[in-house]
Design goal:
This protein is mainly alpha-helical. It contains ten helices and no strands. The chain is flat, with a radius of gyration of 30 Å. The mean pLDDT is 85.
Length: 296
């Protein structure tokens, strides 16, 4: 009788849990069927981790995307454009991605808190949620910095190709096309291809170059755009102007390399003092200490 009395509550609890899990899966299936899939015909393919959480992102965009401030959306759009991922997701989707990442990281932090079973560990899920919210932004900033480094690195090479084409008698549009054809692959090539598409679509040549400068917001590209605009306005030859720009950008690249080389010894001080020197002293001193102890 006693075993029957303990078995009934167990069966009831198990049944309730099974019913709750089944209802959860049914609800998730209904929600997923109601989510509108975004048209990615002209968008870049999603990476694997993003693809797994994308239904949740679209769910948030569908229900809360219209309530976001226009200023915030435009600010995020500018960040995505500088990072070169404006065709990966929309600004609203990026904001939703940050929220989903915060929830996922927060749940992981909550699981860790429950495993620790200590008081005051509520900071763990809160800190994890904050990290999850900041992580996509950090990733975008890393992409932006890497993209800007590649643009500055390959700019002298493209300027050399464009200068040779201009001095051979081609106009600036044809010279840019030659640079795109012969230059190395990278973000600068993609931007110049976009300049060519804008020109073919009817935009003025300098207007297309200024639009590229506004998109990138890189000092070297801004300086090049100003020099080209001044040369075209004054009627000066573009060949010498482009050659001066190429020499200046190449000189700046060498100066940056020299600066990094000079900073290397300073950056090595902490690893030497904190890790290498103590390990060396331990390896050399331990046999001497053991020999001394045995003799004593």
């Amino acid at each position: 009788m006693s075993s029957l009395s303990t078995l009934i509550p167990t069966l009831l609890i198990s049944g309730l849990v099974a019913f709750a899990v089944g209802a959860l899966f049914v609800s998730l299936g209904n929600i997923k069927s109601e989510i509108r899939e975004d048209d990615r015909t002209y968008m870049d393919p999603l990476p694997g981790p993003l693809r797994k959480i994308w239904p949740l992102v679209n769910l948030l965009v569908q229900h809360f995307g219209d309530f976001l401030p226009v200023e915030q959306v435009e600010s995020v759009r500018l960040q995505l454009r500088k990072a070169g991922v404006e065709y990966l997701m929309t600004p609203v989707q990026f904001i939703a991605t940050r929220f989903v990442a915060a929830v996922i990281f927060g749940l992981v932090g909550l699981l860790v808190m429950l495993m620790l079973k200590e008081k005051g560990t509520i900071l763990i899920p809160l800190g994890a949620a904050l990290l999850g919210s900041v992580f996509p932004l950090m990733k975008v900033n890393d992409l932006r910095r890497g993209r800007e480094k590649q643009i500055v690195r390959f700019l002298p090479t493209y300027l050399d190709f464009i200068t040779m084409a201009v001095e051979a008698g081609m106009n600036l549009s044809g010279a840019i096309a030659q640079g795109v054809e012969k230059g190395p692959d990278g973000p600068l090539r993609m931007e110049l291809q976009r300049v060519m598409r804008d020109i073919k679509a009817g935009m003025g040549r300098m207007d297309a170059i200024r639009a590229m400068s506004d998109r990138l917001n890189v000092r070297e590209i801004t300086s090049l755009t100003s020099a080209l605009a001044q040369a075209e306005k004054s009627g000066a030859r573009l060949g010498p102007t482009l050659k001066i720009q190429a020499d200046q950008r190449r000189s700046e690249r060498f100066q940056r390399a020299e600066k990094l080389a000079l900073e290397a010894p300073v950056k090595l001080i902490f690893p030497l003092v904190a890790f290498i020197f103590p390990t060396t002293f331990l390896v050399l001193g331990f046999p001497i200490l053991m020999k001394f102890l045995h003799e004593v």
